[in-house]
Amino acid sequence: MLKWPMFDLPFEPMLSYWLGGISTYDLEETLGAELSAYDPNDKRQREIVIRNFILTRFDDLTYRHRFLLFKVLEEALNLPGFDFLAQFESDYDENTCVAWDETQIKDARGFFEDIYKLAGEDWKEDLRKASLEDQSAW
User: Fold this and answer.
1) Are 15 and 76 a contacting pair, CB within 8 Å?
2) Which of 87, 103, 104, 133 is surrounded by the fewest CB atoms within 10 Å?
């Protein structure tokens, strides 16, 4: 069973992990202020956010972890009616709040499609390497 790199806990990726790099809970004055300069609906600005804040959050993960995260995203994207907008909803009981809430995102699916595209480009070799392995042996 694949575990978190720094913890003896099973690694069970969730779609919400993709927005962790833009989570501003208790960081409103620092990360929140920095991210407020970007328009999540502008494709060029969104690419900067994805590359500099979202994908870099996973720099310490192995190629296997990245592969599983990528597969979770891929599975959600393969569901035509999946509600990606719900991923942007704040839940203060769970300490989750991202830089832009669901009222500010015009195309939540497009946001996640861009994450998928850029992660696929940046992690191409990691994804290929992991795909050649028997994932059940992890």
Assistant:
1) yes
2) 103
